[in-house]
Amino acid sequence: MPCDLNIFVCNKKIFTSLTVSFLPDDIPYEPAWDPRDDHNSSPDDTTSPLTTRWAYAAHPWYPLVPLNPSFNGPIFECLNHSMFSLHTELNSQGKHILHHDIRESWVELEKKLLWCQELLGAGLLVPWETKLPRPPAQYGYQRSHSDTELTKKVALKSHNAFLLIATVCSWYIMSRQYCGSNCPWKALLIDNSRCPIPAKWVHKLSHSFVGDISTKVPCTGTFISSIHCPWELQLPMFEHFSIPIWVHIKQVTVFDVKLCHYNPSKEAIACAIEAQRTSNSAWGQNDSAWGKDDGIWGKQDDGSQSQSALGWDGSTLGWDDSTLGWDDSTLGWGPAPEAPQVDPHFPVPE
Question: What is the SS3 string spanning the chain?
Answer without folding.
Answer: CCCCCEEEEECCEEEEECCCCCCCCCCCCCCCCCCCCCCCCCCCCCCCCCCCEECCCCCCCHHHCECCCCCCCCCCHHHCCCCCCCCEEECCCCCEEECHHHHHHHHHHHHHHHHHHHHHHCCCCCCCCCCCCCCHHHHCCCCCECCHHHHHHHHHHHHHHHHHHHHHHHHHHHHHHHHCCCCCHHHHHHCCCCCCCCHHHHHHHHCCCCCCCCCCCCECCEEEECCECCCCCHHHHHHHCCCCEEEECCECCECCHHHHHHCCCHHHHHHHHHHHHHHHHHHHHHHHHCCCCHHHCCECCCCCECCCCCCCCCCCCCCCCCCCCCCHHHHCCCCCCCCCCCCCCCCCCC
